[in-house]
Specification:
Strand order of the largest sheet of chain B: 1-4
Strand content of chain A: 25-35%
Strand content of chain B: under 5%
CATH class of chain B: Mainly Alpha
Radius of gyration of chain B: 20 Å
Shape of chain B: globular
Radius of gyration of chain A: 19 Å
Number of domains of chain B: 1
CATH superfamily of the largest domain in chain A: P-loop containing nucleotide triphosphate hydrolases
Helix content of chain B: over 70%
Low-confidence stretches of chain B: 1-8, 318-324
Shape of chain A: globular
Oligomer: heterodimer
Number of strands of chain A: 12
Mean pLDDT of chain A: 86
Distance between the termini of chain B: 7 Å
Chain lengths: ~250, ~325
């Protein structure tokens, strides 16, 4: 089932054409690996899907409906979650507060509504248990390792029951041992029927989890095929431009 | 992966240290002077701490969200002059004049916030301009003379005592409770910390960073207007020269209280202690008979030391994630 459909998306910043007529679909329970060199337009595409930018032309369909996101909240409300490369965490808040940021659990306290920290910590514990992470919910994120930070960032997507999860370089900032953990988590998301879009430079990681590979070069989509019909060598050639299209 | 006890963190240590310092300073002044340990003197310390404190709590939020407002002193003076002027020159009733001045106060913060978020001018610059302009305008419009007001009920209530404690101190404590509550238990508080911790992340996750900043700046200028009115009650006139150097006291109290000038870190309880600390030092030095000019030097040195300690703590706190 197609969850997200991008139709002829173009985006220009002044004279710079960041995306040029990109069409792409994303199905439920599918992992799409999006690859490309620096400046190829990967991040721009993610930011358009996430509602950070508005496309210059083209349209986005979400569950067969045309949607327009004017801010990230619009996209999140639909069920599109992004885990950014820099993880977008607030170092000065606890892991639990980070997971629940903008979606805090509240309770009535007289006429006031106050944040229910205990419940948030409890739920975060459950989430970390599911992720098999030893992250402590009441600890501040500043003290945490790369893997723990990743767990916090992914915890957000667990919380929201997302339908589409966009992962921007999920394995770039963590140690080799933890890469396997993250890849397992991606497979878990897929098994739950979530559509996953993963952007990465790390070819082995992409091929380890992706069903389909798409390659962007200078804003143009030059490849969109099943992962098993492709190979790291072909993708490298597509990224560098040694191969025009595939 | 060592598990740490979340109850003991560095901000608690900072506040504990400050509390100990406060007690030491109190003992030193108490043992070396005759009149320091008197009820009358404690009320005097509380009173001066209260005017600073009322503004220091919203200022804590401003600093946490990575902004600053240095126009506090002139803003207090102008609010007082404006308030007294409305009553004396235009015959407006006290409550009405207060409402106008408070709305004006909020507007001022809104203006600073809009300039910051829409024109990207640092708040330091905008409030520096206001610092000069508000003082100048207050002096010009009053010719440097006090604008006298006469209502005794107003003066005795807001300038006097309530149940043996200065009314301003009650107001300061209420302000503290509000800001402590907001910072510890509300979504608004969490959002302010989030904006200070990582503005980019806060924005990408859907927090309206601009509104958060505007709100904290409005709170500070609103409470500056409150203090302006309270000063009028104290000295029975709107005075263009009150609040000289008050921005210094307010920001110093907040930073001594453990709030980082770079944002993200800070707590209302720390600010409360910082406010008391600054007021006590100012008062104690007078009891020691130190020349008022030198008094400022000594306070400068003490605040410098406190900030060095604080910034070292916050440096350690900000030294980034560990790799496991």
């Amino acid at each position: 089932m197609t969850v997200l459909k991008l139709k002829n998306i173009s985006k220009s910043f002044g004279a710079i054409q960041a995306l040029d007529d990109v069409s792409l679909t994303l199905n439920a329970g599918e992992v799409l690996g999006l690859m490309g060199d620096n400046g190829a337009g990967k991040s721009t595409l993610v930011k358009i899907i996430a509602g950070n930018f508005k496309q210059s032309s083209g349209e986005i369909n979400f569950e067969e409906q045309m949607v327009e996101f004017s801010k990230p909240m619009d996209a999140r409300n639909k069920g599109i979650e992004v885990v950014y490369q820099d993880l977008a965490l607030c170092d000065n808040l606890t892991a639990a507060s980070n997971i629940f940021l903008t979606r805090e659990i509240k309770k009535k306290f007289g006429i006031f509504s106050i944040v229910n920290f205990n419940k948030m910590i409890q739920k975060s514990k459950d989430i970390f248990k599911e992720l098999k992470s030893e992250t402590v919910p009441e600890e501040e994120v500043r003290m945490m390792s790369g893997g723990q930070r990743q767990a916090v960032a992914l915890g957000r997507t667990k919380l929201s029951k997302a339908k589409v999860v966009l992962l921007d370089e999920p394995t770039a900032a963590i140690s080799v041992r933890q890469v396997a953990e993250v890849l397992d988590l991606i497979k878990q998301l897929k098994a739950e029927g979530i559509a996953v879009l993963i952007i990465s430079h790390r070819m082995p990681d992409v091929f380890a989890v992706s069903d389909r590979i798409a390659v962007l070069r200078r804003g143009k989509l030059v490849c969109n095929k099943n992962a098993k019909d492709s190979s790291p060598e072909e993708v490298t050639a597509l990224i560098t431009g040694a191969l025009e299209t595939a | 992966m060592a598990k740490k006890n979340p109850k003991i963190n560095i901000s608690n240590i900072h506040e504990l240290g400050l509390l100990i310092a406060l007690i030491i300073v109190m003992l030193v002044f108490g043992l070396t002077t005759d009149n320091f340990f008197s009820e009358r003197n404690f009320m005097s310390i509380l009173r001066s701490a209260s005017y600073v404190g009322i503004i220091a709590f919203p200022m804590t939020f401003v600093l946490i969200s990575r902004e600053i407002d240095i126009s506090v002193g002139p803003s207090v003076a102008w609010s007082g002059v404006f308030f007294a002027g409305l009553i004396k020159w235009y015959g407006i009733s006290y409550p009405m004049a207060a409402v106008i001045v408070l709305i004006w106060g909020m507007f001022l913060g809104y203006f600073v916030g809009m300039v910051r978020t829409k024109l990207f001018i640092p708040t330091f610059i905008t409030t520096l301009a206001l610092w000069s302009a508000l003082r100048g305008f207050s002096l010009w419009i009053t010719d440097g003379m006090p604008v006298l007001i006469s209502d005794k009920t107003f003066r005795y209530f807001f300038g006097g005592d309530l149940a043996g404690v200065p009314t301003v101190t009650w107001i300061m404590l209420i302000t503290f409770c509000i800001f402590w509550f907001v910072s510890s238990y509300t979504v608004t508080g969490t959002n302010i910390y989030a904006v200070g911790g990582n503005p980019k992340a806060a924005r990408s996750i859907g927090i309206n960073v601009d509104n958060v900043k505007i709100m904290t700046l409005m709170a500070t200028s609103f409470f500056s207007a409150v203090v302006g009115i309270l000063y009028v009650a104290r000295v029975a006139s709107g005075n263009s020269t009150v609040g000289e150097g008050m921005e210094f006291d307010v920001i110093a109290a907040v930073v001594v209280g453990g709030t980082a000038l770079g944002g993200a870190v800070g707590r209302m309880t720390g600010t409360l202690l910082g406010v008391l600390f600054i007021a006590m030092i100012g008062n104690g030095l007078i009891h020691w008979g130190i020349d008022p000019d030198l008094n400022k030097v000594v306070r400068g040195i003490i605040i410098f030391i406190a900030v060095v300690i604080n910034s070292n703590l916050s440096f350690k706190r900000n030294s980034g994630p560990k790799e496991d």
